[in-house]
Amino acid sequence: MTDFLYQYPTLYPGILLKRYKRFFVDVELATGEVVTAHCPNTGPMTGVCAVGSAVYLSSSDNPNRKLRYTLEMIEVHDNGATWAGVNTSLPNRVVNLALAKKLIPELGNYHQIRFEVPYGVDRKSRIDFLLTGNESEKPIYVEVKNTTWVQGNLTLFPDTVTTRGQKHLRELMALLPEADSVMLYFINRGDCPYFAPGDSADPVYGVLFREAIALGVRVLPCRFEVSPLGIRYLGLAELKL
């Protein structure tokens, strides 16, 4: 279908048997074969890694790979059955496609998209996207964070203490007012219309999050519908503070 921002390659259905050492999952395929797949998500995957859940895997023919399969999505049941994307290498690729099509009007006017641009006091950090337009317009710095943690119909970030995430909020605040700073949350499931900071998981992040908004950092909680066919952009979630 033409409205998919991203279309998956052929996926293989299975049932999650276990996750271990963060990077590995054992999955029973529909054929009955049990395989070990790469789990491309280093986080705790709070609420989206239940044994017995339906999953989909992608497959690679690269002979240099140790594991043929990659975990792409897990079925969750917080608000009825829905798919949650767990491959954290995809959000930036999908956001890039959305930026190229200018599907997020809240970002404002830009003509050029740059990736992984050094910034910050020591220039050791890299912003996910730097958007620029005319010389008279401020550059737009966009940091992307992936989330699948929900409570009811409320999506939350983070689901664990993240000193790196805290640092990114501080760096976005430091760019003001010379630049336009944006924190874009990639909500990797389509069942939650609301978004809030995960105060219970990281209280410091919650404080910095509200401070950043007060100073002028813009927060864009972007909702994406995930299915075995592809990923669609659904628009913004409503921010709850």
Number of helices: 3
Mean pLDDT: 95
Radius of gyration: 18 Å
Determine the N-to-C terminus distance: 36 Å
Report low-confidence residues grouped into runs of 5 or more.
none
Strand count, sense and barrel status of the largest sheet are: 7 strands, mixed
State the shape: globular
The proportion of residues forming helix, as a percent range, comes to 10-25%
By secondary-structure content and strand pairing, the structural class works out as: mainly beta
Taken as a percent bin, the fraction of beta residues is 35-45%
Number of strands: 17
**Widest sheet, order of strands:** 1-16-15-13-10-9-8
Summarize the structure in short.
By secondary structure, the protein is mainly beta. 15% of the residues lie in helices and 42% in strands.
Brief descriptors of the model:
single chain, seven-stranded mixed sheet, six-stranded antiparallel sheet
Topology summary:
Layout: E1 6-7, E2 11-20, E3 24-29, E4 34-38, E5 54-59, E6 69-76, E7 82-85, H1 91-100, E8 112-119, E9 125-132, E10 140-147, E11 149-151, E12 154-157, H2 163-175, E13 180-187, E14 194-197, H3 203-215, E15 218-226, E16 230-236, E17 238-239
Parallel strand pairs: 10-13, 12-14, 13-15, 14-17
Antiparallel strand pairs: 1-16, 2-3, 2-5, 3-4, 5-6, 6-7, 8-9, 9-10, 11-12, 15-16
